[in-house]
């Protein structure tokens, strides 16, 4: 099939898509957007987290045909033209990135959380990121990063 | 592969009638895992996410009708006050990403013995509304499952909705797994008090090939509460009653040994969960305050 949908605000098209392949495969292999990572292909790790019509989802569990005419936001859409988004900066500054494999999924999940809940409690952060596995950091720095991003976003909103 | 994307319920039924071998796909959280791992190669996928009728819920004549396509996240946010047992169970499903996409209809049709939606629906006497071009039928949730991953749906039928009464009393759910997030249940137990009918509802998950109620336990407890006039004037429950309830629940199980736990463990755990959840609902019945695990 010819697949047409919106990715990060721009119209995207791919030809000869097998309808049963995953959105993750379409993004990485057909559209050259390898930010969303492929680790488990079964919804367990969260490294492929994207937003589909504004809702956080595992791209590996969405069938390509299901995104026809829909809107997808990936980690590639977070940064501005020449600067990182507040969540991305906070991950760098807090030391929440080691090998970096889990980072794209966590960034999308954290961004999604802060949009819904600008000043989350620790338990809200833990709950929201429970679907994203990290084998390196032990999560504490990730917690720091999300708190930092929340503070900075609140500051930006005030100024 | 054919990929069918109806945008109306009627068209979805029409598609299923003309492609009886089509695999419906809603949130995809079961279907896509099977496709990604080559365990299933459907000739036709029937995408239900474009059918707006499936993602609505409404209250008609005192009963909730929940569209098969309502995801767990919305069951929690929008119906948590009216269906607290189902909401507690929904919170234990997968992760936020899974709860955003996974649906009640998909949970029923997958018919896994470990489906977390099933025990609370059993405890609340829910019914599954099944439709095809031939018409509509409602199936009590206890009769919906016919075996492991098997159910009563005919090839041309789809699940339209689930019908369930809003809670009139306390409801609880308990799940055992190796950790808190993202875990397939070792076993689960749901209990609901129905004070206006002086009845108790129960549901066991992962303890038999299909989810089942613990009818004898429920009847024992209800009779005990009625005989001692505790529905209206609740007092702390005698230890003997709580223990007997747990024993009767455990006696209902027909579990197996598998990678997640042994049959013995499951039977034992079921008695413990039954006693605990009874403690929680009874406390709430007495005080009006919900308790968390
Ligand atoms: C990482 C992960 C964690 C999970 N954790 C849990 C958990 O904790 N507890 C739990 O219970 N489940 C869990 N699941 C399983 C799954 O998320 C649930 O069973 C979910 O409810 C399936 O819904 P869905 O909409 O995604 O179904 P889909 O995958 O779209 O479909 C599932 C089945 O239902 C059929 N179907 C869907 N809708 C209909 C309909 N309206 N009529 C007829 N047939 C239909 C499909 O053909 C398919 O056979 C998990 C899955 C993953 C990937
Ligand atoms: S690759 Fe999608 S959740 Fe792991
Ligand atoms: S930084 Fe390596 S997996 Fe998270």
TrEMBL record, chain A:
<dbReference type="InterPro" id="IPR006058">
    <property type="entry name" value="2Fe2S_fd_BS"/>
</dbReference>
<keyword id="KW-0411">Iron-sulfur</keyword>
<keyword id="KW-0001">2Fe-2S</keyword>
<dbReference type="GO" id="GO:0043885">
    <property type="term" value="F:anaerobic carbon-monoxide dehydrogenase activity"/>
</dbReference>
<dbReference type="InterPro" id="IPR002888">
    <property type="entry name" value="2Fe-2S-bd"/>
</dbReference>
<dbReference type="GO" id="GO:0051537">
    <property type="term" value="F:2 iron, 2 sulfur cluster binding"/>
</dbReference>
<dbReference type="InterPro" id="IPR036884">
    <property type="entry name" value="2Fe-2S-bd_dom_sf"/>
</dbReference>
<dbReference type="Pfam" id="PF01799">
    <property type="entry name" value="Fer2_2"/>
</dbReference>
<feature type="domain" description="2Fe-2S ferredoxin-type">
    <location>
        <begin position="1"/>
        <end position="78"/>
    </location>
</feature>
<protein>
    <submittedName>
        <fullName>Carbon-monoxide dehydrogenase small subunit</fullName>
        <ecNumber>1.2.7.4</ecNumber>
    </submittedName>
</protein>
<keyword id="KW-0408">Iron</keyword>
<dbReference type="InterPro" id="IPR012675">
    <property type="entry name" value="Beta-grasp_dom_sf"/>
</dbReference>
<keyword id="KW-0560">Oxidoreductase</keyword>
<keyword id="KW-0479">Metal-binding</keyword>
<dbReference type="InterPro" id="IPR001041">
    <property type="entry name" value="2Fe-2S_ferredoxin-type"/>
</dbReference>
<dbReference type="GO" id="GO:0046872">
    <property type="term" value="F:metal ion binding"/>
</dbReference>
<dbReference type="InterPro" id="IPR036010">
    <property type="entry name" value="2Fe-2S_ferredoxin-like_sf"/>
</dbReference>
<dbReference type="InterPro" id="IPR051452">
    <property type="entry name" value="Diverse_Oxidoreductases"/>
</dbReference>
<dbReference type="Pfam" id="PF00111">
    <property type="entry name" value="Fer2"/>
</dbReference>
TrEMBL record, chain B:
<dbReference type="GO" id="GO:0071949">
    <property type="term" value="F:FAD binding"/>
</dbReference>
<dbReference type="InterPro" id="IPR036683">
    <property type="entry name" value="CO_DH_flav_C_dom_sf"/>
</dbReference>
<feature type="domain" description="FAD-binding PCMH-type">
    <location>
        <begin position="1"/>
        <end position="169"/>
    </location>
</feature>
<dbReference type="GO" id="GO:0016491">
    <property type="term" value="F:oxidoreductase activity"/>
</dbReference>
<feature type="region of interest" description="Disordered">
    <location>
        <begin position="99"/>
        <end position="122"/>
    </location>
</feature>
<dbReference type="Pfam" id="PF03450">
    <property type="entry name" value="CO_deh_flav_C"/>
</dbReference>
<dbReference type="InterPro" id="IPR036318">
    <property type="entry name" value="FAD-bd_PCMH-like_sf"/>
</dbReference>
<keyword id="KW-0560">Oxidoreductase</keyword>
<dbReference type="InterPro" id="IPR051312">
    <property type="entry name" value="Diverse_Substr_Oxidored"/>
</dbReference>
<protein>
    <submittedName>
        <fullName>CO/xanthine dehydrogenase FAD-binding subunit</fullName>
    </submittedName>
</protein>
<dbReference type="InterPro" id="IPR016166">
    <property type="entry name" value="FAD-bd_PCMH"/>
</dbReference>
<dbReference type="InterPro" id="IPR016167">
    <property type="entry name" value="FAD-bd_PCMH_sub1"/>
</dbReference>
<dbReference type="Pfam" id="PF00941">
    <property type="entry name" value="FAD_binding_5"/>
</dbReference>
<keyword id="KW-0285">Flavoprotein</keyword>
<dbReference type="InterPro" id="IPR016169">
    <property type="entry name" value="FAD-bd_PCMH_sub2"/>
</dbReference>
<keyword id="KW-0274">FAD</keyword>
<dbReference type="InterPro" id="IPR002346">
    <property type="entry name" value="Mopterin_DH_FAD-bd"/>
</dbReference>
<dbReference type="InterPro" id="IPR005107">
    <property type="entry name" value="CO_DH_flav_C"/>
</dbReference>
